[in-house]
């Protein structure tokens, strides 16, 4: 017999708790109960419920504070949250959706509405998991690693990028991709996979396929990376993983969204100004099923530039320098060459950075993007 779905109900009103518990139990669900935020977060982390029904108006930690902490905890980030509220104000609902809620149930609630919404969101969760499993099965059918074609600037004239790419071996562990999401939106992805064996070409081809499937107008940038991570966790061996940076540029709204997955910080150079680091913490791709990623949104202007790179650009086996010193050197040189013609920046930077010294024995990717 299949395990019953468990639903965590969080409400400081004991009458509401008992009522919802009774409604859920009659339908065969396991109801977990909490009357405050700290207890709810503890139970969620320990029991991993399939769904959370969360009251907004509670003493101490209110529902908004609770969901913030749930979404910042790797153990609970993927659990769908439905808010329970006696407030029907649109701004309140929008705030909840922005924090990660999937739906609202307005008090006083009808038992049949509660059950209907629970069923809907359990079905959506099942469908998402099925999609991940289906994509994973398709990618397992790839029996021979292949080097995917890397996009060239002339192939994407409206994307506004230039690149330096040099793999250490034929099957490089570093790679990049450009995604033409719409006539206003472009995605830029750069990753560094562990190892340099032939299996890395399999990872490259797999990730490029996943990018094409999941980076679109339906999913937000952070949702795209979560979907890709879920599949990679299924298909990669334990010793394989990727660090990655995904940048989503909407030229219509002039917003650049950065998602960091354990990758070196992006360098941002506003037009006419000095370059600086945009730091963002995040888990690596393909290792943790409940990974969380750093995300930042930046208002940009025409002519602004971003630079993303693999760690081989600042780590040298010939000159023993620290990571911090390497990044400082990179920033200094970009302050001089970063304003040059976009197509010239990569070669000029490599020339200045290594200054006649042998290029490090590592994969190197340096991607320049102009708004």
From TrEMBL:
The UniProt entry, under Pfam families, shows: Response_reg (PF00072), SpoIIE (PF07228)
Entry coiled-coil feature ranges: none
Where does the source fall among the domains of life? Bacteria
Biological process per Gene Ontology, one example term: phosphorelay signal transduction system
InterPro entries xrefs: Bact_Sigma-Reg (IPR052016), CheY-like_superfamily (IPR011006), PPM-type-like_dom_sf (IPR036457), PPM-type_phosphatase-like_dom (IPR001932), Sig_transdc_resp-reg_receiver (IPR001789)
Keywords attached to this entry: Hydrolase, Phosphoprotein
Modified positions (4-aspartylphosphate) are 55
Q: What's a Gene Ontology MF term here? A: phosphatase activity
- Indicate the segments forming the Response regulatory domain, all copies: 6-122
What protein is this chain from? Fused response regulator/phosphatase
Lineage of origin: Bacteria, Pseudomonadati, Thermodesulfobacteriota, Desulfobacteria, Desulfobacterales
